[in-house]
C-alpha cells in the first residue's frame, strides 16, 4: 500500500446533513454539505424525510466533492463513512453507498464514530497556516444536537468520555426552548443571533446541581416552559415582546453550565490544551467563554472553524485517515450502528 499519497473520500449522513469530503494526506481538498430545509416545516428532524433526502442528495454531493477537489474516483485510496451514532435510516444511506463504492473501486472501507470525528475535526486543515493541532492528551467539550460530552482525548484513537448529559443534549436544549418560544428549527443559531441584542441578566434561569462532570438540561427546558406559559397568561405577547432578553438569558445559562463543568474537568485533568467541538461550538458566546476560560487557566484553547462545527464529512475523512494509517479497515459486512460508542 502506498502510504505516501493517501486520498480519502469521507461520507457523513448521520442526521439531516448529507456531506462528502475529499482529503489528501490530511489536507481538506473539498467539504460539501447539503442541508435539508424540509425539517423546518415540522419544527425538528423527521427521520423518514431525512433518509429520503440523503438518498437523493448523496450522489450529487459526492460528485460535487470530487469535482471541487479535482480528484477522480480512480484516484481514491479509501472511503471513510459514519457508522454511528445517528438516525438509523440516515446512517444506512451513507453506509450502503460507501460499501457499494468500495466494492466497485476495490478500495478499503473505514468506519468512523461520529462523536470522535467531531473531536478530530481539530486536525482538519486546508492550508499550512491552519495546522494548529491540539496537543495530546487534551480535554474536549463536545456539544451537539444529540450529545454533550467532556472527552479526555489520549490520542487520535483513544478517547474517554469523562462527563455527559443525563438527559437532553445542549443543542437539543437550544432547539426545544426555541420551539417553546415559537422560533423555527434549528433554534440554536437563531437564539445566538437574537441573544446579541438582549440583556442576559433580565431573566436569570436556575442552574441544575448535577454531580461530577455530568450535565442535565431538561430541567432548564421545563422551567422556561412554565415561566413563559405563566407570563404569557398574565401579559399576552410577553414572549414575543421580550424575545431578545429571553434568548440572552437562556444562552447565558446553557453556556455557563457548560463552562463550569469544563473548568471542573480542567482542574481534575490539568491539560495543556482544551478544545470545543460539535454543532453548538458555533455558538458565539460559548466560543468566547471557552477562550476566556483557557486564558484564565493559562492553557491553550482550540475553537473550530465554523465549517467544522456542525456536521461535515471532512471530520469523517480526517478521523478515517488515522484508522486507515493503522490498517483498521472494515469488510462488506459493516453496518450502521445508531448507538455506536466505541
Ligand atoms: O453537530 P450537529 O451539526 O449535529 C448533531 O450531531 O447533532 O449539531 C447540531 C446542533 C443543533 O442542535 C443546533 O441548534 C446547534 O447544533 N447549533 C447551535 C448553533 N449552531 C448550531 N446552537 C447554539 N448556537 C449556535 N450558533
Ligand atoms: Zn454531529
Structure description:
The chain has helices spanning 47-69, 88-105, 114-120, 170-180, 187-195, 218-234, 238-241, 243-269, 284-297, 313-325; strands spanning 7-12, 18-24, 27-34, 78-84, 109-113, 138-143, 148-153, 159-164, 273-277, 300-302. The chain is an alpha/beta fold and 342 residues long. It has a five-stranded mixed beta sheet with strand order 3-2-1-4-5, sandwiched between helices. It has a five-stranded mixed beta sheet with strand order 8-7-6-9-10, sandwiched between helices. The mean pLDDT is 96. Bound molecules: 5'-O-[(R)-(carboxyoxy)(hydroxy)phosphoryl]adenosine and zinc ion. Residues 15, 144-146, 171, 174-175, 186-189, 192, 278-280, 282-283, 310-311 line the site of 5'-O-[(R)-(carboxyoxy)(hydroxy)phosphoryl]adenosine.
Which SSEs are present, and which pair or pack?
Blueprint: E1 7-12, E2 18-24, E3 27-34, H1 47-69, E4 78-84, H2 88-105, E5 109-113, H3 114-120, E6 138-143, E7 148-153, E8 159-164, H4 170-180, H5 187-195, H6 218-234, H7 238-241, H8 243-269, E9 273-277, H9 284-297, E10 300-302, H10 313-325
Parallel strand pairs: 1-4, 4-5, 6-9, 9-10
Antiparallel strand pairs: 1-2, 2-3, 6-7, 7-8
Helix pairs in contact: 1-2, 3-10, 4-5, 4-6, 4-8, 5-8, 8-9
Bound molecules: 5'-O-[(R)-(carboxyoxy)(hydroxy)phosphoryl]adenosine and zinc ion.
Amino acid at each position: 500500500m502506498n502510504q505516501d499519497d493517501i486520498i480519502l473520500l469521507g461520507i457523513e449522513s448521520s442526521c439531516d446533513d448529507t456531506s462528502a469530503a475529499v482529503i489528501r494526506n490530511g489536507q481538506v481538498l473539498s467539504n460539501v454539505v447539503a442541508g435539508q430545509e424540509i425539517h423546518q416545516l415540522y419544527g425538528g428532524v423527521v427521520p423518514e424525510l431525512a433518509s429520503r433526502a440523503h438518498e437523493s442528495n448523496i450522489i450529487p454531493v459526492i460528485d460535487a466533492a470530487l469535482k471541487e477537489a479535482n480528484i477522480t474516483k480512480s484516484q481514491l485510496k479509501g472511503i471513510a463513512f459514519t457508522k454511528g451514532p445517528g438516525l438509523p435510516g440516515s446512517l444506512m444511506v451513507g453506509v450502503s453507498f460507501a460499501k457499494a463504492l468500495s466494492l466497485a473501486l476495490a478500495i478499503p472501507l473505514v468506519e468512523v464514530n461520529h462523536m470522535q470525528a467531531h473531536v478530530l475535526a481539530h486536525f482538519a486543515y486546508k492550508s499550512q497556516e491552519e495546522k494548529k493541532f491540539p496537543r495530546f492528551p487534551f480535554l474536549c467539550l463536545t456539544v451537539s444536537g444529540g450529545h454533550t460530552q467532556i472527552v479526555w482525548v489520549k490520542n487520535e484513537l483513544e478517547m474517554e468520555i469523562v462527563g455527559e448529559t443525563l438527559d437532553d443534549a445542549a443543542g437539543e436544549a437550544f432547539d426545544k426552548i426555541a420551539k417553546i418560544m415559537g422560533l423555527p428549527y434549528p433554534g440554536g443559531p437563531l437564539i445566538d443571533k437574537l441573544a446579541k441584542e438582549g440583556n442576559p441578566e433580565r431573566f436569570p434561569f436556575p442552574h441544575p446541581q448535577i454531580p461530577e462532570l455530568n450535565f442535565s438540561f431538561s430541567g432548564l427546558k421545563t422551567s422556561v416552559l412554565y415561566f413563559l406559559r405563566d407570563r404569557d397568561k398574565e401579559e399576552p405577547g410577553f414572549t414575543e415582546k421580550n424575545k431578545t432578553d429571553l434568548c440572552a438569558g437562556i444562552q447565558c445559562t446553557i453556556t455557563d453550565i457548560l463552562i463550569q463543568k469544563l473548568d471542573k474537568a480542567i482542574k481534575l485533568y490539568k491539560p495543556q490544551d482544551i478544545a470545543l467541538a460539535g454543532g453548538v461550538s458555533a455558538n458565539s458566546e460559548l466560543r468566547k467563554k471557552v477562550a476566556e476560560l483557557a486564558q484564565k487557566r493559562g492553557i491553550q484553547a482550540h475553537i473550530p472553524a465554523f465549517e467544522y462545527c456542525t456536521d461535515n464529512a471532512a471530520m469523517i475523512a480526517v478521523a478515517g485517515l488515522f484508522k486507515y494509517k493503522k490498517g483498521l479497515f472494515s469488510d462488506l459486512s459493516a453496518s450502521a450502528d445508531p448507538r455506536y460508542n466505541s
